[in-house]
Fold this sequence. Notes:
This protein is mostly helical. Helices cover about 45% and strands about 5% of the residues. The chain is built from 18 helices and 13 strands.
Amino acid sequence: MALSGSLGTFHHPGISRLDYKTLDMDRVLTGLLARLWHQGMPSKINRSNELKVDVFVKLFLDHPEVFDSFDRETTTRWASTHLLDMVNRGRVTEAVAGPRPLHGLTYRFRNKRKSRPYGADEQLYEMLATDEGALDQLREFFFSDVDRATAKITPGTDTDVETQALLHLVEQAGGQMRDRPDTTRPRTPYPALCAEPARQLCRDVLRLLYHQDHMPRTVLVDYLKILFAFHLALYHLRMMKLLPAMIEAGSAPATCRTGHQDPPTAADRCPHRVRLFVDVEGVPGTPAAALAERSAGIWYGRITRFIQATYQIKKLEEFSEDLVKSQKLAPPVGRSYFTPVEVLRRLSAHPKEREAFFLQRATRVRDEEKDLPPELKQITQLGLNAFDEYIEMLMHYKGSYYRSYFIDCLDSMLLKHRPGALLAQPRGRRDSAIRRFVLDARLLEVLLQVSLLREGDDDSGNLRTAPMRVDEFFTLLRERYGLHIDQLPDGDGFSGAHLDDQAALRANAAAFLNRMREIGYYQDMSDAYLTQTITPRYIIGAATTEATA
């Protein structure tokens, strides 16, 4: 049976803006660019035709004064492989999603139905909006050569060829479309359930953008996509712990809402922080891989409870709105929506109204069935209150459905099978038990870029690159991101390292050093921790020659 009307509605934007579909980070970043230009709102572009590869090629060939000696065959191959983001690449149904998001205005050339961010662009924007400086720096990076008043473009002398091509596309065809903010979808800035994920994202974005004068634009954009996916994944992993705990406690921890110290103290450390054991070598069947599979199994095992907790918040919100309609509850002041923390108060207030409201809904579900299935009969015989019975009914009908979509979405945020992955799984298998957390070289490079920047000694606030000892970097990964390499997490499925685990941890740490040698960040002076040093690839500011504590 398909739940009718509002019975099966699930998503709550106060928890996540995502629709829990498989994400592509090119399309997520493209959607974010539109929000950066329109101050948080999506764009609305009037364009009747779908843009195909031939349309982009024609724009190049029709302007030989800019694109000199471009022939059709070479231009077509270059556009489809380097310039454009393609849906179903290499298949019969291949189509253009839009240009690669190398410049801010490329979002105007996307085919909206093929370039869906599924709410991830909104989630990122609202997290970044907690630090206006991060938003300003992103706008400056992506729109630095655009006059906001006149929309005139002035490319810089060091602009790469792909970005140059996209800029000329905007110049030549930009006047043929009307771009405006979609005011029918205004911002709804829900307060964060935990302030730490947004703060971490903003800090890392600012530090990564500090490198924009020292690395190619295409590389930096790829790094940003990996960083955005990484923080989206960390945010939702944290929600998988925090939300069920909020339901049990009937409120959100005050320290989570205000933000934790950085670096955190033992007393202020978030109880719902993410702790993952990652397999650095990335080879299945090793002892370290088995530990990483165990870690992933624990986290993916929390998904069902997270789906149930989201349902509980959503249905309490609907109950709160019903109380407002019946004038038994005052509406929120200055806004038209309830926050998750506010709706949790309905668990301890208005008991008679709550029982009657959810009894009516549970009865409606039963009435839509001619013959109750055995599972539903068991639920009705448990003696639950009306709210809990209704939630169990929803989980019976829709729990597996939303769990499947959430798994696919989480896999895509963890960049499974993609550069920058934090997750691996044998291809063709969907068993959660054989997923394992890994640390792909591209993700490691991104984390190194943001971690090797430190404040200078001149009180100017400027950052500089500095070497770091390997043991310091392990500690930073654990405390800042919850990534464990040479130690097992304290909790989250682990209760201390046994003798066999110690050998696996040593092998994992050795694999990390090998990976660092491969990507050129490691100077191997001896086996002693104090002389194992990570060196920056890009020198910014007054770089020191010694690691600092």
